[in-house]
Amino acid sequence: MEICTGNHFLMDDQILPASCFQYYLKENTPGIYEVIRIIDSVPLFSEKHINRLMNSATRSDITLAFSGDYIMKGIYDLVKINGILNGNVKVLLHYIGDKANPDLHWYIYFIPHHYPAEEAYSEGVAVILFWAERANPNVKAANSDMRITIDNELKERRAYEALLVDSHGNITEGSRSNVFFVKNQTLFTASQDTILPGITRDAILEICKKSHYQVIEERVPHENVHLMDAVFITGTSPKVLPVQRIDNFIFESARNPVVLNIIRAYNKLINNYIQTNKL
């Protein structure tokens, strides 16, 4: 079920009270979406999120009658109306009927967020392997059945995230993150055509290039994870988060110098972006 926090949400051109949110959006809502983190009232890397949303619409054969700038304005309006300085905003394009000529509405609303505790960054988190593949990995589309199954598995096994393993036994990405493996000063991550190319992932690739770390874009076989020195996941909410354990394999990721350098560089990138884009 979709959940709206804050006092107001946006539907198309309307500003509506959160109390009527469930009237418009019910369970198993079909659509494509983006989640954007708000820090100090600034939507972080919002232009890249909107570009990916528009790309998802194109790949899904959905014709849009509005521009990315139109959605961008709605995000800033929502932040201002609610007066919320920090949180996560979801942009959902909800469609019914023929994708070529759909009954299309867009929603922008604050959602519950769960950011990792400081201990998660200083010690790392537990993740599990989960055999599953996305039907269209380049499109950020809702898949409630898969999400419920994974969430139940995470709760039962007390893990933070699930790494998806494809039919060939290779690790592709997290269920809501991207994943990097570190061996010496070389990083491994699945190629862009096999995953949802994360906004944070793109930033990490740039950081690695500037830091002269080699990045090999290929999937890591699940039976080879024990050969790696460190592992970290990336995403809107976790940013760059070290992994302490994959199933029964233990890593010192939170103390790995490559991982620590990348964390520092990404945090600096965020701070610079906020200072540049603060209204």
UniProtKB/TrEMBL annotation:
Its cofactor is pyridoxal 5'-phosphate. Keywords: Aminotransferase, Pyridoxal phosphate, Transferase. It is an enzyme of class 2 (transferase). GO terms for cellular component: cytosol. Its EC number is 2.6.1.42. One of its GO terms (biological process) is amino acid biosynthetic process. InterPro entries: Aminotrans_IV (IPR001544), Aminotrans_IV_CS (IPR018300), Aminotransferase-like (IPR036038), BCAT-like_C (IPR043132), BCAT-like_N (IPR043131), Class-IV_PLP-Dep_Aminotrnsfr (IPR050571). GO terms for molecular function: branched-chain-amino-acid transaminase activity. Belongs to the class-IV pyridoxal-phosphate-dependent aminotransferase family. PANTHER family: AMINO-ACID AMINOTRANSFERASE, AMINODEOXYCHORISMATE LYASE. This is Branched-chain amino acid aminotransferase. It comes from hydrocarbon metagenome.
